[in-house]
Fold this sequence. Notes:
Strand order of the largest sheet: 1-2
Strand content: 5-15%
Mean pLDDT: 81
Number of helices: 5
Radius of gyration: 21 Å
Number of strands: 4
Distance between the termini: 44 Å
Shape: globular
Amino acid sequence: xxxxxxxxxxxxxxxxxxxxLLKEWVFPFFISQWFPQADTASQMLEWILLVIxxxxxxxxxxxxSSAWNHHGLKVGPxxxxxxxxxxxxxxxxLSTVPGIxxxxxxxxxxxDGLRLFNPARWTFHPVTxxxxxxxxxxLGRRIRVTEGESRRFRRMSRGRKVWEKx
Length: 166
């Protein structure tokens, strides 16, 4: 990948790896330290799964927005970056290292939170979650974040306009 597409791929891998690291190791460690009772720790881990699921949805929307507004990628290159990063995650044979199956870890970002609502009926295949995340990514391309400050014109001599903060 060249130019901005490579930067987008690095950004996507970094953000997703950070969330996975927090979900799998950091949060459970601190919960086990702060809440020694098993029932309280279990309840806190359930809350973390729900929060991580919602945050992951917002992350994919933000990555889509970043692909369009910051990196300037059109739909085709954006989808190519998305598929290049996620294709290995959708194939368990490609995403396995001893002791860790990255497909299960990645699909747990959103899937674990959804599974808490009705565990018997809501099991998601990684390809289904890949489609959901792709839709969130494409939805994010329609979102642009701008400054919240309003600015107005101030007349200067000779008819020049200058931005002025209120």
